[in-house]
Each structure stands twice: as C-alpha cells, then as structure tokens.
From TrEMBL:
<dbReference type="Pfam" id="PF22059">
    <property type="entry name" value="GumK_N"/>
</dbReference>
<feature type="domain" description="Glucuronosyltransferase GumK N-terminal">
    <location>
        <begin position="24"/>
        <end position="192"/>
    </location>
</feature>
<dbReference type="InterPro" id="IPR054299">
    <property type="entry name" value="GumK_N"/>
</dbReference>
<protein>
    <recommendedName>
        <fullName>Glucuronosyltransferase GumK N-terminal domain-containing protein</fullName>
    </recommendedName>
</protein>
Length: 396
C-alpha cells in the first residue's frame, strides 16, 4: 500500500481529518489482544483521527531470543501497511532492535542499537509520518525513535504514554537514559498513576488515568460459565504462578480461568483452565459473569504503581468484582482484598474473604473516549470532531 493511498480517506471520508501515529509494542486487528495503546488508538479513531499504529520491539533478533513473533504467527504482514478495525497497522521488523540483555558487557555491546534504531525506520513509515498532527510513543523500545520522529513530524504534538517504568519491564537500561535526556522535549508525558509523576524531571507530566471500553462491558452477554464460583485472571504480567497453583489446589470447588500468552509452568489441576491469549471481545463475558477478579502479581521492585494503573483491576471493579491481589498493588484500590506476597497463607485467606463477600455495585471508571479527549486537550492537539464525553476524567 502506498503512502498516497494511505491518506486518501479517513473514517469520515475527509482529507482534512488529522493524522495520528502510535508507536507501540502492540498490534491491531486480526484477533489480537488489546492493551491500553490499542484502546487509545480506537478512541482516537472514533474522535475523527486517521489512526496509524506502528508495532515496534521486534526484529530478526527476536528469533534468536526465541521470540516467535506472535503477531506474525497470527497472520499480520510484516513491513507493510494493512487495514484493521478502521485503522492502519504496520508491523515493523528491521534487522535489529534494542534488546534487553543481562550483564554489563552485553549491555555495552547492544547499546549502539539504541542510537541506530531511528535511522532504520522505513520510508513507508517516514513519508506518511510527515503529515501527523499527533504522535503517541509507548513506554517500550519506541523511546529510541523520538529524535527521528521529532525531525520528521516537526509540526506534530508528541506525547509519551508512560504506562510502565522501562527498567521494571526489562527494557535495556540505555533506553531509560535516552528517555531522561529527551523527556523535556515531549509536548506531554502522560502517566496513569500518581506514583509515576516525578519519574522524569523537567518533563511536562500530567496524570491521566486509564479508562475501559465501557461499550463492551455495558453490552449484555451470556455467561460462559456452567458452574461456579469462578475466579478470573487476565494477563500474565509479573504473574505469580506458584501462588496461582496453590490457590487452585486449595479451592478445588472454585473454577479458575487464566488468560495470558505465557504457558503455565506446572500441571494445571482440573479446576484451572488456561485459555491462552484471547481477543478482548471473548474475554469480556468472563469478567462480566465472574465471582472474583485475580491480580496475582509477584513482587518486583518499583512495581507499586500498578495499584493505580492496572487495567485488569479497572475492568474487574467496573463489573463489581471483589479483587484479590498483593498489598503493594492494591493500596488505595476500593474494596480490594489484599494479601502479604511473602505469605501464601495470607493469599488463601484473601480469596476466602473475596468469595464470601461476593459481587458489589460497579465502580465509576472513565471510558477511553474521555481519556483520548483529555490527552488531546492537554497536549494541544487538534480535536477532529465534536464528541460528547460520557464521563469526566478524574486525575486525583
């Protein structure tokens, strides 16, 4: 697909619709899972933007690292534009990309990849990027692209979406240094948790919390469960697998449902089903009709911000589920049943209390449309269409 064809029409058929680029480790369309960046892309599309999602953090090195390039396995074409969900996607797979490595010598060897990464951006991305009015860069290897993007899209508002701390999620330490150096040049650094506000001195940072896809969760659905009670666990980030196994074996009458791409490292008991990575639309009924939401994070230094930013927790809470998770990730979470991560017996008791408590009323959570509108306002980007928000954004 050529650059001219790419920009012939937007969702409303107008050549004047503004263009947004998102650089993320996630893919769009074709049954892919959804994370915050995908939800944001969809919200920008609904607000009249012509949205282009460039998937990064993959290269020929991915195969050497035993990464099976999950998006490619799902049939997403590499290094060319494809249409999906009213947007344009580009799965970028260059020869190399900045990879996380252990050991100072290996880090020193791989550090030059950070400086070289931007130069590898293909012309198929660079040419349409020149017309962008809004660029969103996710907290991943995409931070190494900022300087090239700033030169190419000189007129664009560039926003850094700091969904995670780079070092916590295993990124190369050189990316963190690059981010600190570049942070003051971003038009806006958006953080979803108060705990992240002071991470980048000199940056124009703002607290804008995550939202959820309320359309999906407000839609009636049939229960996927035949018997209960049912505990659902969405996502594999920092998953405490030994604890999941213990809970499943301790509560044989509870049905546990785990959704995540990381296989279980133990033989699952009969009451635990590992569904693998599933499209978001299939996950929704499992949350809507569950009895308990699980957020079994293992303890990792610097991860406490999840108490405010965990997307799964927001989805659980909107559906009125009691949430069970470790103390460090549950501080300030209304109605959470927390446990001491150093004491497995504490988690058993927390789940017991959650089952006895049962479901409650849904909590007020912002929609992604509201989040997108707030980011456009704070960054100074153009509002493409009149869009009536359905709730307010709470930044406190």
């Amino acid at each position: 697909m050529t650059g001219d064809l790419l920009f012939d029409s937007g969702e409303n058929g107008s050549r004047e619709s503004p263009v947004a680029f998102l650089f993320t480790q996630q893919t769009i369309g074709l049954g892919a899972r959804k994370t915050s960046m995908v939800f944001l892309a969809e919200a920008l599309r609904r607000r009249g933007y012509r949205v282009h999602v460039v998937t990064v953090q993959r290269s020929w090195l991915s195969r050497l690292r035993r990464d099976q390039e999950r998006a490619t396995a799902r049939g997403v074409p590499r290094n060319r534009w494809y249409a999906a969900d009213g947007m344009q996607g580009f799965l970028w797979v260059p020869p190399v990309h900045p990879v996380a490595t252990r050991g100072k010598v290996r880090q020193w060897i791989s550090a030059p990849l950070i400086a070289a990464y931007g130069a590898l951006l293909p012309r198929a991305v660079v040419e349409p990027l020149r017309k962008a009015e809004l660029v969103v860069i996710e907290s991943c290897s995409a931070v190494a692209l900022f300087r090239r993007i700033r030169r190419v899209a000189a007129q664009a508002r560039i926003l850094y979406s700091m969904n995670d701390r780079l070092t916590v999620i295993g990124m190369h330490p050189g990316l963190q240094r690059r981010l600190h150096a570049d942070a003051p040049r971003y038009d806006l650094v958006r953080v979803p948790a108060q705990a992240l506000l002071d991470d980048l001195p000199g940056a124009r940072a703002a607290l804008v919390r995550h939202g959820i896809d309320r359309r999906a969760f407000d839609r009636a659905s049939a229960s996927p469960y035949s018997v209960g009670p049912n505990a659902v666990l969405i996502g594999d980030m920092m998953l405490d697998q030994p604890l999941l196994e213990r809970l499943a074996r301790t509560f044989p009458t509870v049905r546990f449902h785990y959704f995540g791409r990381t296989p279980l490292a133990f033989a699952a008991p009969a009451n635990l089903t590992a569904w693998g990575e599933q499209p978001f639309e299939r996950l929704v009924p499992f949350v809507q009709h569950a009895d308990v939401g699980l957020a079994l994070y293992r303890r990792v230094p610097g991860l406490a911000y999840l108490a405010e930013s965990s997307l799964k927790n927001l989805q659980y809470r909107y559906c009125g589920l009691p949430v069970v998770g470790p103390e460090f990730a549950m501080r300030g979470v209304p109605g959470a049943l927390s446990y001491d991560p150093e004491c497995a017996g504490s988690a058993v008791e927390a789940l017991r209390r959650a089952l006895a408590k049962g479901r409650g009323p849904p909590e007020a959570v912002a929609d992604w449309d509201d989040v997108a509108g707030e980011l456009l306002r704070l960054s100074g980007a153009r509002e493409a269409s009149v869009h009536r928000s359905r709730s307010s954004i709470h930044s406190g």
